[in-house]
Structure formats: C-alpha cells, structure tokens
Amino acid sequence: MKIGIIGLGYWGPNLVRNFLSQNLVEKVYGCDMNEDRLMFVKSRYPSVELLKNYNELLEKDIDAVAIATPVNTHYKLALQALNAGKHIWLEKPFTSTTVQAKELIELADSKNLKIFVDHTFLYTGAVRKMKDLVSNGELGDIIYFDSVRVNLGLFQHDVNVIWDLAPHDLSIMNYLIPDKKVTAVTACGISNYNEIENLAQLSLHFENSSCFAHFHVNWTSPVKIRKMIIAGKEKMLVFDDMENSEKIKIYNSGVDITTTEGIHNALVQYRIGDMYSPKIEQTEALSLAAREFITSILEDRKPLTSGEEGLEVVKILEASDKSIKNRGLLIEFEQSFEKFYYHSVLPFQKVG
Asked: Quick check: is 45 in a domain?
C-alpha cells in the first residue's frame, strides 16, 4: 500500500514513522505547506516523498490519506480525499460537527472506502486490558466513570479544552460500555485568557441506566494528571496513565446495602478487599492503530475506530458546546435512523 500524510506538525511525524514501519506499506508521502516541517521530516525519514500541494498528493498513486491537521480543516480535506477515491485516516476529533461526520460516513459507504478515526488510546495495552475486565464481568455492572485529564498547556487556537482533551476519555468510555447510550450532557467551564474555555467539567447521563460519567479537563493545572476511575458493583478499577508500570489497579471494594423494613433502616456495609495490578502489553498503540487501518482496508471491513465511533464522540462534544455556552444547561439528544437533533431543558427540570 501507499499512504499519504497531510500535516507534518506535532503529530504528523509520528504517523510517518509508524506507517514506514508497517510491512504492508510500500511508500509514504508527506504533505505540508511549511518548508521547515518538510525539511524536518526529510532529515529523519529520507525515503519519504514530500510535497507542498494537497491536490498533487491526491493525484499520486496512493491508497489512503492520513489527515493530521486542525479539526476545522478535517471535513474539507477528507471530502476531497474520498472524492478522489482514497481511504481516510483522521486525527481526533473526527469533524467539527455531526452533520459533517454523517456526510463523510455516507460518502465513504457509497464508495466502499474506509474511515479511520485515530482514537489512539483504544489501541493501548491498558485500555485493551480494561476492555477484557469489563467484558468478562469482573467489575460487575458499571455504575460510574470519573476521569481527570489536566496539564499546563498546550493551548489550542481553534477548539476549547473539551474538544482537545475529552475525546480520549470519551472514546475509552464508549469502547468499554457500548451498550450504555448517552442521552444527556451538561458542561461547565471558564475562559480565563481568551474566548476559548481552558478549564471545563463534563457530565453524561445514560439511557435506562444508573451509570453516570464525569470528566474534568484543564489546560492550566500545575501538575499533569491522567487518571480514570471505573466503578462496578463488584469491583473498581483505577487507570493512571502517568504510572510507568502499574497503570491499572483492581480493587475488590464496594458498597453493600441491605434493606430491612424501610429505606431509613437500610444497612450500609463497605467492602474493602484485595488490590492487584494486571500485566499489560507494551506494544506502541500508534503502531497497532496503523496496522488496524491497513488490514481493515485489505480485509474490506470497518476498523475498530471507524467513522461511526468518531461520530458518537462528536455528538457529545457538540452538545457540550451548547451546554457550556448556557452555563451548564442540560442538553438532551435523541437519535433516530434518519436524524440526529438536540433539545434542551432547564437544569434540574424533570424530563418526562
């Protein structure tokens, strides 16, 4: 296969390196308007053919295009690539709107082309182990997610902190509990330095479920934290991505409630048992992602992180925008076969 990569800034060179390492990739092309970035990539990967013009890249005999540019350019560049008959890889988030995402998915399906959204964490050994633990029922029914992803910088100029940091943990959540559908979103945040929120909190409600999810994201934290707690009725899991070795810890802890004659006589017992840390595979996630993209094309199947998975994340992000601009207004969204739309209700208002 031959792969073209547009956008050789922060993430693009990582894509170049990982596609070059794939046995099934014969040739890699790089595209960027910045001469300094072209020279940087050429100095490290001499075999890569470099171009400044995206249209020239699409005219090459390539099978797929990886798009590593700002999210507000994703739709236009992806649309051009699909119309040129190329499979596409897009960095997160997939698109700026759900309308754009659905249009790209429909176009790709009509042309039998694949869309891959780079939710990289789903290819990490830690998240794959978490998937095994949740799927085999070791944690029991999941009752909440609590995620913190904060650091000092890097400020983005085109999206707020939710669009920048939350897609990682939202994609993990959707992957671990695909049976639980998000029905409502609330988001609160603040813009301390410009019009773009640099600190925010996002809460999700699920259909017919006691499960709840909360995400805290921040570009202005003095410390870097990457931690998620997943609580089940049987056991609880802590995922700390800053740990070098024991990234996952399983706690045999929980709450047991025995009700006697009435709710006021409920007996609450806290269960605190053993803790263990399972072994995790150490293969580079981006390498596995590149392999999944390539094999999905060769095997003519949807990749693990397809356009549909990207759309589910964009739905939540788009709803968060509506909520955060209205000081935490509850945004409910519904999905049918033909249409996706939002409606909002006042905070704390009972919804029938």
From this structure: yes
